[in-house]
Design goal:
The structure is a homodimer of 240-residue chains. The first copy, chain A, is built from 9 helices and 10 strands. Chain A is an alpha/beta fold and 240 residues long. The first copy, chain A, folds into 2 domains: 113 residues, Tetrapyrrole methylase, N-terminal domain (Cobalt-precorrin-4 Transmethylase, domain 1, 3-Layer(aba) Sandwich), CATH 3.40.1010; 112 residues, 2-Layer Sandwich (Methyltransferase, Cobalt-precorrin-4 Transmethylase, Domain 2), CATH 3.30.950. The N and C termini of chain A lie far apart (53 Å). At the A-B interface, α1, α2, α5, β5 and α6 of A face α1, α2, α5, β5 and α6 of B. β6 of chain A pairs antiparallel with β6 of chain B, so a sheet runs across the interface.
């Protein structure tokens, strides 16, 4: 087994069917090979990912702890025991970069509180890649996670983001549960001003299905689309 | 020369002395090899990066346009001519992911306006990697670029970000010109509340010098540090 420096490694996971070599640095695999303790959002997808990185990965000799909505959060600190005694620990979310839009940040905050070393690895972030490809202001932006589900609150929130973008020139980014994506596009088209720009970035890094389209709201009103069940990022921008 | 689909490729550039294979997917190089038209923040660093990716890269047969503070922005559209006739074009910033904290977004917005395909590639983003490793809320965050230089305005702005983080639970991220980094840490330590958390993330991806430290303001006051001239990201978080 490879020697890897003791640290909490934040390991990005492929977010699409793209070949690993087009979305992850090969150096990540070298580090993964030296880790036997993992904090993961979902054990099954984590194991599958490790084997995709290295078909000979010793899953049986590895330890997995699930950090998600069902976790007793008082347990998390104990999962860093290997790191405290000098062994590397890995953190993986279901998809993309851990500790961004998933519960992994809790493990990181405990490590930081104790002065343990934290090392983020490079990988695909659909939030950042959507921002890059939108053509919107990347010198000021805000990510809001999920917006409210109720239609009235949602329209109100979407209008707030539009006026915030107009006032401060910042790109406003958010996500939606994939089966509600079409409803979100409709809400944006019906609610925002005609000249406000909306970027819809879907299936990022997928070699066949990636689609990143920026249009003014008045064009979205006329356009046909189907983003249902496709992982998608939404961006609003006024100004510039 | 490799055949690469016609698109505007957003090509991340190494932000440290790290070996390429630890920060960039090998697939990026395969795409770069098929591109002969580039829009870059700085021609010299762009050429050096291309040769680092592939020592045999045909620089002489390639065309470079500089998009930075000195550019006549009316020219930018004409640099997309190759793409309009079906040839790939690459965009590179000085360091990190293009079109985020650099002028490359203008080229992307023109491509989007004309319905030309835009493809972001995976690479190191110090903003996102700092957020991952901070342990702060990644489900809501804002990036503000540079803060004001004047001491009074700066303190005021820093306090605004602190209260925004407290009110909305969002991580607040910003950068500083590297030679002013120490002054920024001092400003944060003197201005913010003792229990507000500050993460200072420096030399991200550098195998020797990377340092990502989260501490409450009261600890930063006592701590010795020297971030002068080291590329650094600052993050503020209250709550959680």
């Amino acid at each position: 087994m490879a020697e890897v420096e003791a640290a909490l490694y934040l390991i990005p996971v492929n977010i699409s069917d793209a070949p690993l070599e087009s979305v992850l640095p090969s150096g990540n695999t070298a580090i993964i090979r030296g880790i036997r303790h993992f904090i993961v959002e979902n054990v099954r997808t984590a194991r599958r990912f490790l084997l995709r990185c290295d078909r000979t990965f010793d899953i049986g000799a590895s330890e997995f702890h699930e950090l998600n909505g069902h976790t007793d959060l008082r347990e998390v600190s104990s999962w860093l025991e290997p790191l405290r005694r000098g062994e590397p620990v890995g953190v993986m979310s279901e998809a993309g970069c851990p500790a961004v839009a998933d519960p992994g940040a809790l493990a990181v905050s405990i490590a930081q509180r104790e002065g343990l070393k934290v090392v983020p690895l490079v990988g695909p972030s659909s939030i950042l890649m959507a921002l890059m490809a939108s053509g919107f202001n990347g010198q000021g932006f805000a990510f809001h996670g999920y917006l409210p589900i109720g239609e009235d609150e949602r329209r109100k929130r979407v209008r707030e983001l539009e006026s915030e973008s107009r006032r401060r020139g910042m790109t406003q980014i958010f996500i939606e549960t994939p089966y509600r994506n079409n409803r979100m596009v409709a809400t944006l088209a019906e609610t925002l001003r005609g000249d406000t720009l909306v970027c819809v970035a879907s299936e990022i890094t997928d070699p066949e299905r990636e689609s990143i389209v920026t249009l003014p709201v008045r064009e979205w009103k006329k356009r046909e689309y189907d983003y249902s069940k496709h992982p998608t990022i939404f961006l609003i921008y006024c100004g510039g």
